[in-house]
């Protein structure tokens, strides 16, 4: 497969973010659901951010050593189209989350239900942001492969 | 990915200019080889600036390299 630096970068970031998220979110939701576990959540989050940064740096150093790097107009065009997809996913995700929070609060006023704590909401927001970023990277890869 | 409505003669012009490679053209225009491939296959419409640069590489006017084919889109 003959790819530009920017396409290789999108592939690497997509796989790295997908892999780290696959491990991070189950652990983060478990920590957030456990009352008083903010320290656990912070530790997990810092660990994942550090792991992601290290993976990204190592990967980009490797692909940069093989040449390329500068963006051309098609890279910018594809990035804009992918940002549009990410914006759409982010909007849908956040509206769904807000709707869920309001619905739970409304139901709780009628009958006792378990509401979401602040930490759980924070992890959900992070989840939506991550899904939007993954959507952006996946869109970039798709546009590159489609020859846009 | 659907083709754009911008048609081009880049493949023919490269052939007429000593089988210029896509990489050589890309370097002269200042884009990646993959962008030249996408333009040649009419999957990507170049910017006006890139189109003028491509035409200049071949020493041709813009409309000798690119043409617009109206479609239903």
Overview of the molecule:
The complex is a heterodimer of chains A (148) and B (73). With 148 residues, chain A is mainly α. Chain A has one domain. Chain A is 83% helix and 0% strand. In chain A, α3 runs antiparallel to α4 (118-146). The model of chain A has no long low-confidence stretch (mean pLDDT 91). Chain B starts with 5 loop residues before the first strand and ends in a 5-residue tail after the last strand. Chain B is mainly alpha-helical. Chain B has a two-stranded antiparallel sheet with strand order 1-2. Chain B has a single domain (6-58), classed as 434 Repressor (Amino-terminal Domain) (Orthogonal Bundle), CATH 1.10.260. The interface between A and B is medium-sized, with 15 and 16 residues.
Order of helices and strands of chain A: HHHH
Spatial ordering of strands, largest sheet of chain B: 1-2
Q: Structural class of the secondary structure composition of chain A? A: mainly alpha
Gross geometry of chain B:
globular
Radius of gyration of chain A, in angstroms, nearest whole number: 19 Å
- How many runs of DSSP E, i.e. beta strands of chain B? 2
**What share of the residues of chain B lie within helices?**
40-55%
Task: Give the DSSP E fraction of chain A (strand runs of 2 or more residues).
Answer: under 5%
Largest sheet of chain A: none
State the helix count of chain B: 5
Radius of gyration of chain B: 12 Å
User: Based on the structure, what is the oligomeric state of the protein chains?
Assistant: heterodimer
Low-confidence stretches of chain B: none
**Whole-number total of structural domains of chain B:** 1
Q: What is the average per-residue confidence, as pLDDT of chain B, rounded to a whole number? A: 91
Beginning-to-end CA distance, first to last residue of chain B: 13 Å
Class derived from helix and strand content of chain B: mainly alpha
């Amino acid at each position: 497969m003959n790819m530009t630096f920017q396409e290789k970068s999108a592939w690497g970031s997509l796989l790295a973010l997908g892999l780290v998220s696959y491990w991070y979110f189950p652990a983060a939701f478990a920590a957030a659901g456990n009352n008083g576990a903010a320290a656990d959540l912070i530790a997990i989050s810092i660990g994942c951010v550090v792991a992601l940064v290290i993976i990204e740096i190592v990967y980009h150093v490797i692909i940069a050593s093989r040449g390329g790097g500068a963006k051309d107009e098609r890279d910018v065009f594809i990035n804009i189209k992918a940002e549009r997809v990410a914006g759409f996913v982010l909007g849908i995700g956040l509206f769904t989350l807000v709707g869920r929070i309001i619905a739970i609060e409304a139901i709780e006023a009628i009958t006792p239900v378990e509401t979401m704590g602040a930490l759980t909401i924070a992890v959900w927001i992070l989840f939506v942001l991550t899904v939007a970023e993954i959507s952006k990277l996946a869109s970039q890869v798709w546009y590159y492969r489609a020859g846009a | 990915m659907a083709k754009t409505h911008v048609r081009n003669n880049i493949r023919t012009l490269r052939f007429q200019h000593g089988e210029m490679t896509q990489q050589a053209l890309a370097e002269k225009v200042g884009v990646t080889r993959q962008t030249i491939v996408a333009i040649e296959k009419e999957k990507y419409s170049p910017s006006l600036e890139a189109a003028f640069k491509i035409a200049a590489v071949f020493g041709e006017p813009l409309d000798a390299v690119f043409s617009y084919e109206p479609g239903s889109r």
